[in-house]
Design goal:
Residues 1-23 are annotated as: Disordered. InterPro entries: DC-UbP/UBTD2_N, DC-UbP/UBTD2_N_sf, UBTD1/2. The chain is an alpha+beta fold. The chain has a domain at 31-103: Bacteriocin As-48, Chain A, CATH 1.20.225.20. Helices cover 36% and strands 10% of the residues. It contains four helices and five strands; from the N terminus they run βαααβββαβ. The chain has a three-stranded antiparallel sheet with strand order 2-3-4, with no helix packed on it. The longest helix is centred in the middle third of the chain and has 14 residues, at 33-46.
């Protein structure tokens, strides 16, 4: 039984935020796609060492690399609690925090073409 002002929430999601595309951002200096890929690979290789569960890190990587609809499905299926709609701050069901840098979520506006 809830409070007088409480409402039933549709579906099984408690207070789940809907995943949205990250806002445009600019890297401190122009970088190539190869450099961006290297930064992303380094982050994902070391992410489990920041704490939390490897399975959640794997799900976050899959969500970050997927289109927005699939990302929402991945997050919901993994039980990830989205704090920031762009996935930059998330929690697992045990309360462990997962911070994702901008560069793993989207490309900067000042990316340069490689020759």
């Amino acid at each position: 039984m809830g409070c007088v002002g409480s409402k039933a929430v549709k579906g099984s999601d408690r207070h789940q935020k809907k995943v949205k595309r990250p806002k445009p951002w600019k890297h401190i200096e122009a970088i190539t796609r190869t450099q961006l890929k290297q930064m992303r690979d380094e982050f994902w290789d070391t992410a489990p060492h920041y704490g939390g569960k490897k399975e959640i890190w794997d799900a976050l990587r899959a969500a970050a690399e997927a289109d927005i609809n699939l990302a929402q499905l991945i997050v919901d299926s993994a039980g990830i609690i989205v704090q920031s709609e762009d996935l930059s701050t998330c929690y697992d069901e045990r309360g462990a925090k997962y911070d994702l840098p901008k560069y793993v979520l989207s490309e900067p506006t000042n990316i340069i073409k490689e020759d």
